[in-house]
Design brief:
- 44% of the residues lie in helices and 14% in strands.
- It contains 15 helices and nine strands.
- Helix 1 runs antiparallel to helix 4, helix 1 crosses helix 7 and helix 4 crosses helix 7.
- The chain is globular and about 65 Å long.
- The two termini are 37 Å apart.
- The structure holds S-adenosylmethionine (SAM).
- S-adenosylmethionine binds next to strand 3.
Length: 404
């Protein structure tokens, strides 16, 4: 994992710098203090506690394994089974899990305290709009309803009352704790990076007129694209109604007029073949089941016009050439953060799926994109790193690009 001297470490900005909008929940002093405490605890655990996990592995767990078995561990799963019995690892892992649970507690109580007002604000902003298209009859995929992804109670989809947006308000307010603001004021560093990529593409003549975003959640990453290209027609789909209500209200309050938010399953959409110039996904693929993933990739191929592009931004891969210990650490979320497809997705050859869907191998490429954030609020150390545990290093993602 990355190392950085304590001298060069920076602390995250306060939670209050988050970009506000028409449905953003209001926080009082104690709620703000809790988010700030959790953000800094998260950083502390990543920077100061986590290095000890590697020492525990190298000095204690692996030598014991080698003396018992006469060989080193051969897979990340073997490292995991070994480390799950180690008290230092247990401590670090419990702290990390607890921070996530406390983030959810704080975000939920914040949203619930002003539940009626938030739902009303969203309903007012959404009222009469043709750009919010919900489908209450849409079946929720089993892999979405089976688990509260990253420990979010109610996941993305639960509605506790009519017009409910509470799960979305929790997600939007709490994500800062996990990212320490490294995704920017509006948690849109990925979308801003796509905007920069699109400006580069435009120089080569690729200027999409219709864009599809699959699995948009609250619209963090599609809104900056809509703002940068107001003439472009954008469709953003998600299976979950509460996040779409919130996304539409949020976008409207930020002055965005060119996104239609639609409740639909990206595995099978009712648009005609070749309807879009560009199809994007942002941190979406790793939350799909191994059945849904190829279906979604097939839909991206079908829906992209000839000459169009597909772009998937994903979490950095762990790859076979990495030390097993690093692969094991990067797979932590699979078993401890309710991300059941995280490890599975990382084991899948996404390019092979894209080729099966019909893309020519010669038209597939992999690029690195780095979060584009407001440097005055979120100073970066300048360089990027896949692991990005050290605050001050911008998240760098793995990006799959296809040309049809
Ligand atoms: C990790 S979030 C994506 C984050 C979002 N793209 C962003 O940029 O902030 C995953 C989202 O995908 C949605 N989702 C999962 N399966 C889906 C499917 N088959 N079709 C459409 N949306 C889906 C979930 O409801 C959730 O909102």
């Amino acid at each position: 994992m990355s190392s950085m001297s304590s001298k060069s470490r920076k602390t995250p900005p306060g939670w209050h710098v988050i970009g506000k909008h028409g449905v953003f929940p209001k926080a009082n002093h104690d709620e703000t203090a809790r988010f700030n405490f959790l953000t800094n605890l998260n950083m502390h655990v990543a920077q100061e506690v986590m290095p000890g996990v590697q020492s525990a592995y190298e000095k204690r767990a692996r030598p014991r394994f080698e003396s018992d078995k006469g060989r080193p561990p051969a897979t990340r799963q073997e490292v995991r089974r070994l480390m799950e019995a180690d008290p230092y690892y247990q401590t670090w892992s419990s702290l990390r899990r607890n921070i996530m649970e406390m983030r959810q507690q704080n975000g939920r109580s914040l949203a619930y305290r002003q539940w009626d007002q938030l739902n009303q604000k969203a309903a007012d902003l959404n009222s009469g709009s043709t750009q919010l298209q919900l489908d209450p009859a849409l079946p929720l995929p089993r892999y979405v309803s089976a688990v509260d992804i990253h420990c979010m109670p109610g996941c993305y989809y639960t509605e506790y009352c009519e017009d409910d947006v509470s799960v979305a308000a929790n997600y939007d307010s709490g994500i800062f704790v996990t990212t320490a603001g490294m995704l920017g004021k509006y948690s849109d560093g990925g979308g801003q990076a796509i905007v920069a990529w699109l400006h580069e593409q435009a120089k080569q003549g690729f200027k999409p007129k219709r864009i599809l975003d699959m699995g948009c959640t609250v619209g963090h990453n599609i809104v900056p694209i809509a703002q940068a290209f107001p003439e472009t027609e954008i469709v953003a789909v998600d299976v979950a109604a509460p996040v779409l209500r919130y996304a539409h209200a949020r976008a409207k309050s930020l002055g965005v007029e060119n996104i239609t938010f639609r409740q639909a399953n990206a595995e099978s959409l009712d648009y005609a073949d070749g309807s879009f110039d560009l199809v994007i996904t942002c941190m979406f693929l790793h939350e799909l089941s191994s059945t849904a993933l190829p279906n979604v990739i097939n839909e991206t191929h079908r829906l992209t016009r000839a000459g169009g592009r597909v772009l998937h931004i994903e979490q950095p891969q762990f790859t076979d050439d990495m030390p097993l210990f690093e692969q094991f650490m990067r797979d932590w979320d699979s078993r401890n953060n309710n991300e059941p497809f995280w490890g599975t997705m990382h084991d899948i050859d996404v390019f092979a799926l894209m080729e099966n869907a019909g893309f020519a191998r010669s038209k597939l490429s992999s690029i690195g994109l780095t979060a584009v954030v407001d440097e005055s609020l979120f100073p970066s150390a300048g360089d990027t790193d896949d692991a990005a545990e050290d605050y001050g290093r911008k998240p760098a993602w793995h990006v799959y690009v296809a040309e049809k």
